[in-house]
Amino acid sequence: MKNSIITLAIAGSIASALASVAVPASAADTKEKCYGVALKGQNDCAAGKHDCAGKSTMSYDKMSFKLVPTGTCTSMKTPQGHGSLTPA
Questions:
Q1: Residue ranges of the alpha helices (H) in 1-88?
Q2: Around 34, how many Cα atoms within 13 Å sit in the side-chain half-sphere?
Q3: Positive or negative CA dihedral for 62, 65, 71, 76?
Q4: Using CA atoms, how far apart are residues 68 and 87, in angstroms rounded to an integer?
Q5: How far is the C-alpha of 64 from the C-alpha of 39, rounded, in Å?
Q6: Count of CB atoms within 10 A of residue 12's CB?
Q7: CB atoms within 10 A of CB 35
Q8: What is the pTM of this model?
Q9: pLDDT tens-digit profile of 23-71?
Q10: CA distances from 4 to 16, 37, 71, 75 (A)
């Protein structure tokens, strides 16, 4: 009984390790940086007056980006215009 519990625990550990290898390395592989679409404090990272996530002080800042699904950035419309793949 004790051996079967240990065997199951080891099998579970190995299965978990293998499952994590099968997952894509990063969700960012299917996302792109879209500048000018993030709301105040909801940017993913940045340039300009702040250095990273959640630090933008204004909505639709053209220097801050939000990660969005690849291919959707330039079609996103905001009160300040469309999203951009490059900082302004």
A1: 2-22
A2: 25
A3: negative
A4: 15
A5: 10
A6: 10
A7: 22
A8: 0.61
A9: 445 554 799 999 999 998 888 875 666 667 777 788 998 888 899 999 9
A10: 18, 55, 50, 57
Place of tokens 């099998």: 11
Q: How far is CA 42 from the centre of its chain?
A: 12
Single-letter amino acid code for the residue at 49? K
Outline where DSSP puts E strands in the chain. 31-35, 45-46, 64-69, 77-78, 81-82
Residue corresponding to tokens 């993913």: 44
Q: Which amino acid is at 3?
A: N
How many CA atoms does the CB half-sphere of 28 hold within 13 Å?
Answer: 8
